[in-house]
Amino acid sequence: SDPRHNPDAKLLSTVRAMDDVLFEMAGGGGVLGRGGMVTKVRAARLAAKSGCPTLIASGESDNVLSRVMAGEMLGTLFTTDKDRMTAHQQWLAAHLQTAGRLVIDDGAVEAIKLKHRSLLPVGVKTVEGHFDRGDVVECVDKQGKRVAVGRVNFSSRSAEIIKGLSSDKVYQVLGEDRSLEMIHRDHMAIY
Known about the structure:
It is built from seven helices and eight strands. By secondary structure, it is of the alpha/beta class. A five-stranded mixed beta sheet has the order 5-4-6-7-8. A three-stranded mixed beta sheet has the order 1-3-2, covered by helices on one side. The protein is elongated, with a radius of gyration of 20 Å.
């Protein structure tokens, strides 16, 4: 909670950067990286995916950098997980603006997050926005929570036609001999 508005707010000295509860605790924030705790949590998560811990401390404190470097515990330390992203995945994860959105079903969420699989058309429920093949799109669950971002293998027009179809049906409908993944795992960053 914001200590400027809640006298009962407590400082969390150490948190796991990839813990989803941080977004709930952070409340609102800048949509395009213009302030608020949500923006800071997103930045700390991105750094954690590269293996870098992050410390968020008040810039209004006297000599905050010197004090932190001397070992004083100020602010909140965001710790990292062992799984690091490739440079390409880091580039994808850093996209604040995406060309479109794919709403995916629970099976696709599980395949992506737990089994580290590609997104197949069968798992796509809704296609939003206008995008071309190779654009970066956002994948969200049915509640609108971001699951991943990635470079899509189909335009929004083609994606709309093949959403929900099994791989063998995709080939029959499009009549093209090419990748059947909506987004290949190697071109995806998971949240």
